[in-house]
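Appendix B: complex inputs.
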Amino acid sequence: MIIDCHGHYTTAPKALEDWRNRQIAGIKDPALMSKAGELKISDDELRESIEKNQLRLMNERGSDLTIFSPRASFMAHHIGDFAVSSTWAAICNELCFRVSQLFPRHFIPAAMLPQSPGVDPATCIPELVKCVEQYGNVGINLNPDPSGGHWTSPPLTDRHWYPIYEKMVEYDIPAMVHVSTSCNDCFHTTGAHYLNADTTAFMQCLTGDLFNDFPTLRFIIPHGGGAVPYHWGRFRGLAQELKKPLLKDHLLNNIFFDTCVYHQPGIDLLTQVIPLKNILFASEMIGAVRGIDPETGHYYDDTKRYIEASSIVVGDDRHQIYEGNARRVFPRLDAALKKQGR
Amino acid sequence: MIIDCHGHYTTAPKALEDWRNRQIAGIKDPALMSKAGELKISDDELRESIEKNQLRLMNERGSDLTIFSPRASFMAHHIGDFAVSSTWAAICNELCFRVSQLFPRHFIPAAMLPQSPGVDPATCIPELVKCVEQYGNVGINLNPDPSGGHWTSPPLTDRHWYPIYEKMVEYDIPAMVHVSTSCNDCFHTTGAHYLNADTTAFMQCLTGDLFNDFPTLRFIIPHGGGAVPYHWGRFRGLAQELKKPLLKDHLLNNIFFDTCVYHQPGIDLLTQVIPLKNILFASEMIGAVRGIDPETGHYYDDTKRYIEASSIVVGDDRHQIYEGNARRVFPRLDAALKKQGR
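Resulting structure:
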């Protein structure tokens, strides 16, 4: 079985974006503000948006199940206040839940949180509880920079974030550490901000001792861990300078990397450097890089091809990356699959 | 001949730091402000600081010449105003010049600029001119984020930076794009901010068309290009989405990467993915990662070992990375070496 741990609902019907645009207009002019109940998307529309896109590609490429969360770049936590984020998160999470109900063998939801810059993350708990308890979400996306590229929140090791972590530990769910759109002109969203955030989050954890306080807390660092595996020697050396334990003991019981690296040499490095138990298959399809690589004739984000072509990952190792690790890191996914007899 | 294109004067006598601390104290209380003339460091002190450190390691490891610039993390352009940066840059550049005079076969200077957040980069020109014309500097370090992790300057493709570029083109000198200390708690300086800046700078160039305006402008992206080579497929794909030419045409006549990647798999990926004409040997020694890698028994930053052990870079390719590319990217270095009969 092949589980893609990183998919976003990037192909939602246009009504969603229209609703969001009215909501954003409503921040300045409350008369224009859209209400949650005004969004009407039928099951048929949802079905079509998935069947023609993600599900089609999953079938073509041969993956079985996607952990599916709202579109990352649309979270845009920097827009408006907590109320705006709260309504928006509820709507987006409901749509992913509905997709998971329509395609229960192919999609299982992960939640976005109603984060807002400068607002206590504890305010996100009710949405998180609803998503886990009522919607069957198996993980969350945690944005370490709700300001959208201004980095005004404390590091992930700060107690600021502990209310979220306590709930994550209680539910035994992991978080993918995933930023959203950059509103800082310096950072291209998917070409700089995403990768920078991945590197930043890892280094925040390296300098701190978060996992002493939360030994079972689990983070997935997406996009192959940003710059981390490529600079693994640097990070091992920095940990040494900072008198931290070896990274395998200090961080690798709690931090995992996905395989959203869009060429063979990158996947080869990732799988060579990072223990296989810490690597989860993912494509972030349909996402930032949608084209076909002229050097291979295949989609850049068809990451399964790189795993299949790997001489490093073979036999049972492949199973670990495709399925075993995801079941271990997302215990609620494992439980849901077992309920389905899978 | 082996040229290390990325060395900083990290081992300057303590008097320099003391002077800087008095300067910083003087920002709040002008009575405490240190004056440039108060810094006294003898040639013997300079000699000792180099012979015991960089030069010793260069001899041990077998590199011949270092392009030597002021300590990157000490530039701290975010501290004080332009006058503070200006005095500080002049002092630091003078020390590197003196080192180059004391060890003319081993060190050649590159300049830091007196950047200051919110200040027109044109104000840096006089220091740049002095460093090139009087001190024989062969390149500069350009900080794309003088705010120190708040990223308040426009992207490198903005006309804001053009006065520097015009002077670079006139002198035919390249810039290493190198940030300084992060004063943003989110970013560890050498573990996140440096790598993020490398990725960010590359992506800024990718989205823009800077090299149409300056076809001969050259940037070195340090630390192996941040996350870029590891995600080369992603960047190729993003360029494609943005309807840009192939990266080799769009950027690789102007952008170069150094080899400050501190483990074998990283160097292997770099040399496999990036054309060899775009890779310049460097160690950033003595820098962020000073320890010995327990997995190899050698210094993490002894990057020559990784090149020597490479099965990808052999024969004349090695010469290109060690010497040929540096002579091409730094024409004033080449001219200075030829004057020495090298």
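Chain B touches chain A through 58 residues (CB under 8 Å).
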